[in-house]
Specification:
Elements (H helix, E strand, L loop, with lengths): L1 H23 L4 H7 L2 H11 L5 H10 L4 H24 L1 H8 L9 H24 L7 H11 L5 H12 L3 H36 L4 H28 L2
Length: 241
């Protein structure tokens, strides 16, 4: 299964490279624009691979009280930040890259990873405290968006490769367009994860809706587990990386 996913990514990337070379040689927009929708497939397939904060997204939504629409907003926030950070780093280039990547090479950004995991750790501690000392409550839009933006801070390495290749050929605008289309694909995969997590939680709540005390305990329990997982992820990334 994973080999199939990897093969699809490789084939699309090689096709992208050929189209960028042709576009840079002056073949015009038509051929490149006809290929552009493949970026959606590229992004969706790439987001299926390990990473992209899927587990963090699912864990947070399973322990929150957000509905389908708000869960989608969290997934869109992750997708937007994840891809946009790569585009910004590539466009505003070498000094920023050398600082953010700490000389460790493409695909790794220690400073942004530390900031991302640190913010998620703070949110996890808040969820643990809330589960222990507060009555069950609705998580606001702001908290969900903060989680999405924090989880998405780590730039997408594949988008960086795409942008770097386009810039090296003198056509950064083509790289930006392909990255934006990739974002749609990433958002589709993460949205599926978000909807699944929210649906699972809602079904669990519906199963026990005749037992309010049990629901209260289940809600706080899920929130506490979600908070503990976020804290554990942050601690592991920050101290045992």
């Amino acid at each position: 299964m994973w080999q199939f996913v990897i093969d699809i990514q490789r084939d699309i990337y090689l096709a992208f490279a050929d189209h960028i070379k042709a576009f840079a040689s002056g073949t015009g927009w038509s051929a490149f624009l006809s290929f552009l929708p493949m970026g959606i497939v590229f992004g969706a397939v790439h987001a299926m691979t390990p990473g992209h904060s899927k587990s963090i997204l699912a864990t947070y939504l399973a322990g929150s009280s957000l509905g389908m629409l708000r869960g989608l907003l969290v997934s869109l926030a992750i997708s937007f930040t994840h891809v946009t950070m790569s585009v910004v780093i590539a466009l505003f280039s070498l000094p920023l890259v050398s600082i953010m990547f700490g000389g460790t090479g493409a695909g790794s950004s220690p400073i942004l990873e530390s900031v991302s995991r640190g913010l998620l750790g703070v949110i996890g501690i808040w969820m643990l405290w809330s589960a222990r000392f507060r009555e069950p409550h609705s998580h606001g839009d702001r908290e969900g968006i903060v989680v999405g933006l924090s989880a998405g801070l780590i730039p997408c390495p594949l988008t960086l490769f795409v942008m770097t290749f386009a810039i090296s050929r003198g056509v950064p605008e083509a790289g930006v367009m392909f990255a934006l289309v990739m974002m749609i694909g990433v958002a589709l995969t993460l949205s599926a994860v978000a909807l699944t997590a929210v649906f699972f939680r809602q079904q669990m709540v519906h199963l026990f809706n005749t037992r309010p005390k049990l629901i209260s305990g289940l809600t706080k329990g899920l929130q506490a587990v979600s908070g503990a997982v976020l804290v554990a992820v942050a601690a592991h990334e920050l101290w045992w990386r």
